[in-house]
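Researcher: Structure for this, please.
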Amino acid sequence: MKADVQTMAAKKSGTVDLSDHIFGLEPREDILQRMVRYQLAKRQAGTHKTKSRGEINRTGAKFGRQKGGGRARHGNRRVGIFVGGAKAFGPRVRSHAIDLPKKVRALALRHALSAKAGAGELVVLDKAEAKTPKTKDLKGAFSKLGLENALIIDGAEVNQNLRLAAGNIGHVDVLPVQGINVYDILRRRTLVLTKAAVEALEARFK
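Model: Predicted structure, token format:
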């Protein structure tokens, strides 16, 4: 399939051929859902923790008479019913990551790219560069391109001025092609790829 290439000034700069096995698939929601769940679970810290009874520094001696006290026959102050006691079945430090085969992850990325291409939400730029790191100038260029909520994927390196200027614009993310991922593609309305990013993706999935 062919796609028009635009410049940062919103002018046409030729066309580019997009591989059908990357941008022409029929998106499957189940694969995309599995990949998003995999990404979100993997980035959970898992550092939440409460102390168990073995970690509480309190006496284990019986603190009252067996009979005649008018209270229950407790023998340990570390139990959860007392203030300062342990938490029964509380959270522990652990990894929330789940397994997902490498081939499924690669397929999910191609399905996400195909979903954007099929929905007409894919823009191909000749180069993603900014002459100055001023946000105002970049906003003007984005308004000409019709970009309000977008993910911009450049080549191996992101233009420094573009990265600085886009950092103050809400709902706009800029990533190198190595950082492209399904979650960020789906959470933004428009996917913007440079010609260098397209070439890198085609080399990756060759």
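Researcher: Any notable elements?
Model: The longest helix spans residues 102-118. Helices lie at 20-23, 29-42, 102-118, 135-145, 160-166, 182-187, 195-204.
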